Amino acid sequence: QVQLVESGGGLVQAGGSLSVSCTASGRTLRSYNMGWFRQAPGKEREFVAGIRWNGDTTYYADSVKGRFTISRDNAKNTVYLQMNSLKSEDTAVYYCAAGVVGRRTYDYWGQGTQVTVSS
Predict the structure, then answer these.
(1) pLDDT value at position 97?
(2) Taking Cα atoms as reference points, which of 72, 74, 91 lies closest to residue 82?
C-alpha cells in the first residue's frame, strides 16, 4: 500500500503561480500512474492532470491545459503540479492519487491541500 501526502498549497493572487507536490511512502511510485484532482466547495471532485508511471505521457483537463504542468521524479517518489496563470475558479482542495499500472482506477488518495486564488 502507498501513502500520499500533498504539500505546497496556499494563497495566491489571480495570474500568479503555485506548485504543489505529492510525496509517497510505503511503496515506490514507479508502479503507479499518478493524477491530480481537485474539489471546489459545493462541487464534485474533478480530474485535473495525469501522468503515466514512466512519465512518457501526460493528460490534462481542458480547463487547465496550457496553464498547468504535471511531472514526476520517481527517484524522489514525488509528483508535482506546476500551476501558472491561476484563476479564481482554480480555487479548490487539490488531491493526488495513485493508480496501479494496468488498472483504470485510482486506488490511493492523499488528504488534499488547499489552493486559494484571490481575484
Answers:
(1) 98
(2) 72
Helix (H) or strand (E) holding 73: strand 68-73
Q: Closest Cα to residue 68, out of 78, 58, 54, 55? A: 58
Nearest to 59 by CA among 23, 99, 88: 99
Residue range 26-53, pLDDT digits in tens:
888 998 999 999 999 999 999 999 999 9
* 33 burial type by CB count under 10 A (0-12 exposed, 13-18 middle, 19+ buried): buried
Residues 6 or more apart in contact with residue 43 via CB below 8 angstroms = 92
Q: Which residue has the cell 492523499?
A: 110
pLDDT tens digits along 47-57: 999 999 999 99
